[in-house]
Amino acid sequence: MPSERMSDEKRSVQFSRRKFLAGSGATVAASLAGCFGSAGSSGSDSVKIGFVLPFSGTYSFLGESIVNGVKLRLDEQLDGEIDGRTVEYVRKDTGADPATGASITQEFLQSENVDFIVGPVSSAVAGAMKPEIASSGSAIWLNANAGNFKLVQDNCTKYHFRTSFNTWQTSAPLASYINDNIADNVVLSYANYTFGQQSKNLFREEFEKVGGSVVDEIGAPLGTSDYSSFLQEIENSGADAVFSFFAGSDAVNYIKQFSSFGLNEKMTQTGSGFLLSADTLQAQGTAALGMYSLLHYTPTKQTDRNQAFVDAYSSQYDTTPNVYACQGYDSALAAELAVTEAGGTETDPMVSSLAGAELDSPRGYFKFKSSTHDPVMDMDIRQVVEADGGVQNEVVETLTQVEGPTWGCNL
Amino acid sequence: MAIEGIAKTALLGVEMGMTLVLVTVGLTLIFGMMDVINFAHGSLYMLGAYFGLTVVTVTGNWWAALLVAPLLVGLLGGLIEYLSIRPLYGRNPLYHILLTFGFAIMLHGLVTEIWGGQVQNIATPSLLEGSVDLVLFSYPLFRLFLLGVSIAVTAALWVAMRRSDFGIVMRASAHDSEMVDALGTDVKRVFTAVFVLGSILAGLAGVLLGTSRAVDPGMAASIIIQAFAIVVIGGLGSYRGAVVGAFVVGMLNAFGPTFAPQFTDALLYLLMAAVLLVKPAGLFGTPEGA
Amino acid sequence: MSVKDIVGRHFSARQQTDVLSGRVRVGLFVAGVVAVLFAPFAQAVHPFWMDLATHMFIFALFALSLDFVFGYAGLLSFGHAAMFGAGGYATALLIQNATTSALVVLPMAVLVGAAVAALIGWLSVSARGIYFAMLTLAFAQLFYTVVFNDIPAMLLGLEAVTNGDNGLVGITALTLFGVDTGSLMAYYYLSLAMLGGMLALVTRLANSPFGRVMQAIRENEDRVAFIGYDVDRYKIVAFTISGGMAGLAGGLWVPFNSTATTAMLHWTTSGELIVMTLLGGMGTLWGPIAGAFLVVFLEDSLSAIGNWEIYLGIVYIVIVIFAPRGLAGIFRTVRSNPDPRVLLSKARSALATYREKVFS
Asked: Are residues A334 and A288 in the same domain?
């Protein structure tokens, strides 16, 4: 990793630490004032964004990418102001712990009086945050990565705007492509936790609907480091293709070992985009060649909008953007639009201006669906190909304006 | 299950088990001799992988990494022992938990700070790419190499502990360090040497497994509990126990997904509980070892 | 005079002071008064301090539960997360399906924690030392996988019981005598009262003949067994009591966060608890409370910095090397000789000892 980027990161960390302290001081003053007058949202001339993200451990890379995406828009392109209002940030580390996420959310809502909450990475953390945000109603939640569709299904809340994706969108739409172009029979392999099970089930439902058959399904515990025995089961299934959900280090272990046991010569590997995304692809290397996946953002996508984003991001951070950075960037676009359209940071007017709104996202078409506040967006089917110095995803087909179910949510 | 399947799964089990020995041997020797419960052992393994990653990036040579990274980890392990564990000898060994837990946390943060949180991987050397045809099935060459190295190291250590003077002092110190000290051997230096040896082996495992698996800051935590379980199953402080325990757990990992796919993550703990309920000091442990 | 009486007297005689000496009790009383007065002050200045303090109280209670078996009976439990989680999940399920009354929910959390501890204790006591620790770890991790994979739902044929890795969320506040404890201040006082009550209870237990036997077991369990005590039974009882307290801590933790999640049950929770106990000074009861306060405070205040674990780890390392008896030891040293010059010379001699031990 270039040392230049490291020192940049260190600076930004210290910087936000100071901001955080300054923020706390301001809040003390605000709550003192609150004893005498009514303590509304933060001051009329500022917009406060709270990052509820992992900044330590395995997911810290995702957290930092989201922050980078947000700051690229707000700090670099808008000079730290939205519609004449100064942007302020607070951030705290969720790790991967839902209880910590809930507690930070409470603090940001009650004590920091944030206008927007950006985060989290993990769906379990999102589940814990949701009741806090729904009952408070004092901030807009820009959900920049947690894809669990049940966030919308059970007691959906109007304050929740997903600037990322839902589980259905990253799994089911791939079914008909596989059935038409790759194989009419698959074996499913997945990390055995909610997200993996959801992706697997949603894919299976759609794949059977379009006429394909599922031969077998194999779940491996989250965090498995050696998949060889599971791979043998996959091989024994005799299917022509595999659809998988694994992410992070699981995805690297799975793909590397899949190919080292020669399964890539016997069956076609496909999966949700997180199986082969920018944060794991370099580690997977040539083991990933030829594999298919479905995701809403591909850095190599050949559009002017994306090229402009990639150029801006690369020159700022000295690395190509990934899907998480794009989700962060789109969160910033949403915040910008909400404050500008509503003419302030009052929560309910911001909700009205975001519902049904379109964003000029690098990923392509993007609209907050009015009924669920989930995105309606373009999804890319990609294949891993060789590139200079490694491998990369190449878009083979773009599915336009993918919506998905509403799960009974009607906002 | 066809005969090829059983044979291949068995080989997988042997391979997974024997590679784990590299991690567990250090853990059990360190405990046996110094009563140190080393939570940082997984972090040393992780550092082996990250040092290996950097050496490969800088030199482009995997074999250099295989040589250099474990030595660097050994050096670091030596420093940790010298500067922080040594002052604690004579105190309740429970404080080692706090100390090594502190190191595990610190190194987790430090690795994320230096190398970033994203998943990485050491590229397989071209010499060890591809598969070998073993009549009934084919098997990745690199994994055979892993198996070979693990067996060689395990055997060499076994011989060294039986035959060499240092090995005899080591075993004697594990049995009764005060007596060895009284007889004129500087036990402290033996301790440092054992800690360095354990660190080198963990670092070696880091480079080897960092090539076949993902390298990320979570790898320390994911191996340490498994390694503890193996050491406890075998009997703390017992070299033979660490080898047999790793072998058994390797087999469990290999056959588990076939026979109990829903409960693979519970199997290790079931085994550990079962062994300790029948033999409260593990398979080859002595109650005094506790 | 029976053998047991002689032993009892022998132990009492050896124990020069009671558990928690008079001066420490005065100190704790003052701390309690300060804690009671703190809430209105925080309400006026920065209400979120109460949130942090409540977090501290709950983990202090949890650490106290470990210190009771670890510090007094010498049973190093590496599985206290199981009881913490059991109490927590029981609370969540009760609040969701039955009642929010604290008078029902919290006693149930205690009972469930105690029941789980009794089972784990009964299965584990035959192992000693580190093997006991690893057995409790094994059972706790088994419990974790059961909750993570929602085995209860599988067995009962329901859609969700523990709700797997997503946990149970949106748990509403407890009610006490018809009063909602949802406000920060109400929950602050509830947790403080529980911590104070349990500290009093544990102190009494530790000073009772039962507590003396436990300490004797810690010192030399073979001798205690030889005299005729059923050592295993004492251990199981102590472990069960401790589990009940851990269950209570879990029962307070869940409504506080409005979530019950698998992280409560993970081995790292047990590990963190051991760290709190050792950092504070095991076997002192108030030390682990201070340890919990420090760890919670550090985690909260450091977590705004990137990779804050580096600094947390360094704090642990420095304390364990230079303060052998943890925070309790530092406090004792300071109290016995508040003169800064003496303290400075003590710090110097600690450094000198360190140098000597390392470089000799």
From this structure: no
Q: Does residue A403 lie within any of the structural domains?
A: no
Confirm whether C90 is domain-assigned.
Answer: yes
**Nearest-CA distance C280 → chain A (Å):** 23
Does A23 score more than 60 pLDDT? Answer: no
Task: Give the up-direction half-sphere exposure of residue C41: CA atoms within 13 A in the CB hemisphere.
Answer: 8
- The DSSP bridge pattern shows strands A390-402 and A140-143 to be unpaired
Residue span of the structural domain in which B148 resides? 3-218
Give the separation between CA C93 and CA A281, rounded to whole angstroms. Answer: 42
CA-nearest of B35, B50, B11 to B202 is B50
Q: For residues A277 and B92, what is the distance between their CA atoms, to the nearest angstrom?
A: 48
Same domain, A18 and A124: yes
- The answer as to whether A117 is a domain residue is yes
Flag whether C314 is in a domain. Answer: no
Domain range holding A265?
174-295
Q: C182: domain CATH number? A: 1.10.3470
Chain A interface disruption, residue of C54, C261, C309, most A CBs within 10 A:
C261
Q: Cβ of A225 and B256 within 8 Å?
A: no
Out of C47, C165, C258, name the one closest to residue A124 (CB).
C165
Which residues of A are less than 8 Å from B141 in CB distance?
none
CB distance from A229 to chain B under 8 Å?
yes
pLDDT for res C18: 59
Between strands A140-143 and A116-118, the pairing is parallel
Neighbours, chain A (3 or more CB pairs < 8 A)? B, C
Which of chain A's residues have a Cβ under 8 Å away from the Cβ of B209? 225
Predicted ipTM of the assembly: 0.92
**What is the distance in angstroms between the Cα of B259 and the nearest Cα belonging to chain A?**
11
Neighbours of A349 (CB within 10 A): 15
On whether both A179 and A51 belong to a single domain, the answer is no
Say whether C47 and A32 touch across the interface (CB within 8 A): no
Determine how β-strand A375-387 pairs with β-strand A292-295: antiparallel
Note the residue count of chain C.
360
Q: Give the number of domains in chain A.
A: 2
In a domain, C27, yes or no: yes
Q: Is residue B282 part of a domain?
A: no
Residue A406 exposed, middle or buried by CB count within 10 Å (0-12, 13-18, 19+): middle
Distance from the C353 Cα atom to the nearest Cα atom in chain A, whole angstroms: 35
Is the domain of A11 the same as that of A104?
A: yes
Question: Looking at the 3D structure of chain B, how many domains does it have?
Answer: 1
Say if residues B197 and B174 touch (Cβ distance below 8 Å): no
CATH code, domain carrying A271:
3.40.50.2300
Same domain, A118 and A237: no
Distances (CA, A) of C189 to A351, C29, C247, C249: 37, 15, 19, 14
Domains identified in chain C, total number: 1
Of the three residues A278, A295, A312, the one that is the final residue of a domain is A295
Q: Is residue C359 part of a domain?
A: no
Along the 360 residues of chain C, how does pLDDT read in single tens digits?
A: 344 443 344 344 344 445 677 778 888 888 999 999 999 898 888 888 898 999 999 999 999 999 999 988 889 999 999 999 999 999 999 999 998 889 999 999 999 999 999 999 999 998 888 889 989 999 999 999 999 999 999 899 988 899 988 889 888 888 888 778 778 889 999 999 999 999 999 999 988 999 888 888 888 888 888 888 999 999 999 999 999 999 999 999 999 988 999 999 999 999 999 999 999 998 889 999 999 999 999 988 887 777 888 999 999 999 999 887 888 888 888 888 778 888 888 888 888 888 888 876
Q: Is A96 part of a structural domain of the chain?
A: yes
Domain that holds residue C60: 3-285
Q: Cβ contacts (< 8 Å) between B118 and chain A: which residues?
A: 61, 279-280, 283
pTM of the model: 0.89
